[in-house]
Amino acid sequence: MSDGPHERPFDRGLQTERTLLAWRRTCLALAVGNAVAIKYLSDLLGPWATLVGVAGLALSGVAWVISARRYRRMHEGLVRDGTLALDGRMPLLLAGSVLMAALAAIILMVVLWRPW
């Protein structure tokens, strides 16, 4: 049984596969960070912290799915005719998830800050 033309790697260094793994690690790290924020901030701030954390988790999950679709689209384009088909959705979702995590961290610092 031979692999189809779209099943073989584009290059021997597996750059697109390594890029997919890097995006997945990033999404997983952001999801863990948002889950930790939900756990620790919900006791301090109530439902608002949970809402921010859940929004960050949702963005991380969507970014995970889009990274897989992006990989397939890139891989097929590279194998078929050697071109990349990219858009800006993945970096936008990543930025949104980082924004949610940063917002949770800022809220935590403001709530726990005791200058005296």
TrEMBL record:
It is a multi-pass membrane protein. The chain crosses the membrane at residues 48-71, 92-113. It holds the Pfam family DUF202. Residues 11-75 form the DUF202 domain. Its main location: membrane. Keywords: Membrane, Transmembrane, Transmembrane helix. This is DUF202 domain-containing protein. It is found in: Endomembrane system. InterPro entries: DUF202. It comes from Microbacterium kribbense.
